[in-house]
Each structure stands twice: as structure tokens, then as C-alpha cells.
Fold TetR family transcriptional regulator.
Amino acid sequence: MAQTDTVTRILDTAEVLFAERGFAETSLRNITSKAKVNLAAVNYHFGSKKSLIQAVFARYLDPFTERFHAALDELEAKYQGEVIPLEELLETMARSVLEVPAERNSLKVFMKLLGLAYSQAQGHLRRYIQEHYGSVFTRFAALVRQATPDLPDAERFWRLHFMLGTVIFTLSGLDALRDIAEKDYGEHVSVRELIRRLRPVVVAGMNAPLPEPVGDALPAAG
Amino acid sequence: MAQTDTVTRILDTAEVLFAERGFAETSLRNITSKAKVNLAAVNYHFGSKKSLIQAVFARYLDPFTERFHAALDELEAKYQGEVIPLEELLETMARSVLEVPAERNSLKVFMKLLGLAYSQAQGHLRRYIQEHYGSVFTRFAALVRQATPDLPDAERFWRLHFMLGTVIFTLSGLDALRDIAEKDYGEHVSVRELIRRLRPVVVAGMNAPLPEPVGDALPAAG
DNA sequence: GTGGGACATAAACATTTGTTTTAAACATTA
DNA sequence: TAATGTTTAAAACAAATGTTTATGTCCCAC
């Protein structure tokens, strides 16, 4: 086995298994046996299972943040202080997200991992991501703010997260949904196809009219 | 300990712990010790951990489907064959979702569970839910179809899931989001508040213009 | 060539997991 | 009261988990 492709094989195998079954449900023995690597190699190279999980994310998020920053730089240069339209911002983000895993043909895995990062308890993960990659999102949020000056800050905050939910939820649960869709419509949807469908929905959601100020008819709930 | 409040205590404790930490991360010993109940009681009353998980869901979904069916009955009676407007349908669904856990003051738990049901691998759960509660959603989807006759079937299918993603993702990750929001804006958002904000976004998303037929500029991805 | 660092291997370790088993307590009915 | 079915209790079980150790192997600098 050449030098340290062991590390790569562990990461390659781990990300697939994590995406398929979740973190807690994937044992180190699952990973190492499928990767044809010794069990101890994980703790040797990564230190612990937690660190392995973070390393799996870093391999996606590091290139992503770099690319996304660069893309935003370009965009700011292009508009030279002018306000960047919302569509351009969303488009740029989508492109950045798509570019990275495209290199490794594993967008599906990336999306599943993102979904898990949000839903799964795994407190350490959310902290890790927020800590290491929060700055790009802050920058993005600031640009979105300029692009949507009529939106109250709180409203924009929530809508951004609504849209994030739409995208992550859809793309991370894609396999299951695709099964249903194929059964119902026979047509096989690609990720690009889905992105194409998502775009107008996301834009419309961001530009939706403001909610009525008060007094809806819904029942109270704790 | 009176007759079989053991079962109730197990369910009450299990749903909270499941919602907080996920299924795999919650051990039976966690549940039984916190519930002050013997370990063996779980296997005695429920048979297995899997069945316990399903029972936790059933306690929410059984009343929900019943209520939702009833609400749809009312709606159909009210409109007497006329097409039910989309807003009414969405409103009715929201109301039905909110009513059930409101009785037990645990909407947050319910939403977290829903999120887990989607994201977590747990194949048995998705199958269980689809099998036992799929019919209500089918009925709902048929009504939405009548309410949005201009939408191609496939488009409507995906948009419904987009919106489902928005709602579930937001409400299930609510605690984390709420923390951020409070830090940024100091304002504490209630669930009702969030629903009020969600509504126009969801409606706008469903009514968004159709996507451009082809040829977007996004890079290819597998 | 030899010593030393980097890595691989196999075995063992201590916990924790879900599940069973055995026995005792309880309640209900005859 | 005796007998029966139901529920709780404590302990034990086998399996699986993350992690560590001890040994072996390779390769490169000296």
C-alpha cells in the first residue's frame, strides 16, 4: 500500500458510509473493513472518531469556502460597490456548492453530510462547522442584506434559513424522494434538474410579501 | 407504581431523549434510568428498541392523521366540490400539525422527531411511516393538485417536498436557530411567530414561476 | 549496513450496547 | 385462600463499540 493513501481510503469510505447510515450507526470496523485498512489506522491517523468526522467535512468545506470567497471577490469586483442582485448571489452560491464535489463526483454525499450535520445531534460537529466556516456565511449574509434592503433584518435572517432548509432537506433526502418520484412519474431527476427547479422557488420565497403583522388564526402551541 | 403508567413514562422520556440526541445515541439505559423504570420494561412492553421508536411516532401520528382527515372532510364539505384554495389547504395542514402536540405542550419534540425521521438513516422508520400514514398525504396531494391546476405534476410534486423541507428543517432545527437569532437580534421567537413567517414564503414558493425550460449555466455534477 | 521514524498489523482492553433470564411482587379471579 | 396472569426487579449474556498496546515491517538518512 503506497505511502499514505490509507488516509484517503479511510476518508473516501467513511464519507460514503456516514452519508448512507449516519455517524453513530457507522462503526470504525465498518469503515476499516470496507476500506481494507487496519482498524487502528483510524485512531493513528485521525486520533478519534470525532476527528475523523470533522476531517470528512473539512475535505469538502475547505475547498468550498475558498472557492466561495473567491467567487464573491469576483462578484464584488464586477459590481464595483454597486449592489449585487439577489439572483446573482444565489446563483454564485449554488455554483460554488456544486463545483467542489463535482470534482469528485459525489455531490450526493456532500448534501447528505450537510443534512446530517444539521439534524444529527453531534454537538461537536455544529460547533466545529460554525467555528471554522462561519465567516463565509457572515459575508454572504451581509451581501444578501444589501440586495434586499426592504426586508427587515429578522425577516431576512429567517428566510435565509428557510431557503437553506429547502435546499439541504431536498438534496440530502434526494435518494428517497427520487425513488418516489420515479415510481410516480417514471422520470429520473438529476441534481442539476433539481437545482433548476429549486431556483425560482427560492427566489420567490425570498421575495415573498411580508407576513401579516399579527393575529393569525392558528392555535397556541408551546 | 400504578398499573401501566410505566408505558407512558417510557414513552414520555424516550421521545424527549430521542429528540435531543437521536435514536442511536440514546440507549435504553438512558431512557429507563431517567424514567425511573426498570431496564427490562422496555423489551417487555414494546418488544424491542425499534418498536419503541415506532411507538413514539405513533403516539403523535395517530391523532394527527385522524385530525387531519377530519379537517379535510370539513373542508371538502364546506366547498362542496368546488376547488379548495391552496392557502386554505396549507392553513389546514398547519393547524392539524399544531393541534396535536399542543395538547401535550411538545410541538418542539414533535418537529425534532419529524426531522429525524427524514434525515436519520433508520430505514425501518421511513418504511413504517410511509406504510401507516402515507394515505393522508396522498389525499392531501390530490387536493393540492386541484388547487394548482397550472402546475405540471412533477413540478408540484417537487415543490411540495421543497416546502416540506422548509418547514421541517426550520422547526426541527429550531433550538439552534433560535440561539443564533437571539444572539443577533435579541428577540425570542415563538413557534407561532415562526409559522406566521413561514406562511407567505411557502405560498410564494408554491406559486413561483415555472423554471426556465433548459440550459442553465451551472456546472455538471454527478 | 545500521539506526530511527513512519506506518501497518494483530491482539487485547474496558465499556457500552440491546436483549434474556430468573425470581419476586402484585393484582385479579375463581 | 388458592391459583393464575401480569408487571417489576436484578442479574447475567453475548455482541459490538472506540481505543490502546505491543510487535512487526518498510524505507530513507547517515
